[in-house]
Amino acid sequence: MTDYSHDPDLAGVNSRILADGEHLPAVTLKDGSRVQTGTVAAMLQNVARYNQGERGEVERELELAVPTLVKVGLFELFSPQEWAAGDNPGRRFVGLKAQDYLGSRKA
């Protein structure tokens, strides 16, 4: 079982949504896996940054979030294909990265 909580890069990305001195914990899900909290909120802010034209680091941060977003069920609510559809470039980027990630897990 993958432990998502021990990714200091993701924790660092997620902490940017917080006020100074605050921190986000990792939590244990019922299946025993751990995930970093704040990932969805940070991803939404990064989608907005992407939509404003930022690339490079924001792309890496969005891609870094995908395994945790899969683990918490985000793509069961809206499939990667639904994320990739439409005219929102950041949302499309996340959807395509989720498709790649899920496809690589099946291979």
Q: N- to C-terminal separation?
A: 17 Å
Shape: globular
DSSP helical segment count: 6
Low-confidence stretches: 1-6
Order of strands across the main sheet: 1-2
What share of residues is helical?
55-70%
Structural class: mainly alpha
- Output mean pLDDT: 91
Q: What portion of residues belong to β-strands?
A: 5-15%
**Computed Rg:** 14 Å
Tell me the number of strands: 2
H and E order: HEEHHHHH
Description:
This protein has 107 residues and is mostly helical. Helices cover 59% and strands 6% of the residues. It contains six helices and two strands. The chain has helices at 8-15, 39-51, 57-71, 74-77, 80-84, 89-106; strands spanning 26-28, 34-36. It has a two-stranded antiparallel sheet. The longest helix has 18 residues, at 89-106. The protein is globular. The protein starts with 7 loop residues before the first helix and ends with a helix. Residues 1-6 have low confidence and may be disordered.
Outline the fold blueprint.
Layout: H1 8-15, E1 26-28, E2 34-36, H2 39-51, H3 57-71, H4 74-77, H5 80-84, H6 89-106
Helix pairs in contact: 1-2, 2-3, 2-6, 3-6
In short:
The chain is mainly alpha-helical and 107 residues long. It has helices at residues 8-15, 39-51, 57-71, 74-77, 80-84, 89-106, and strands spanning 26-28, 34-36.
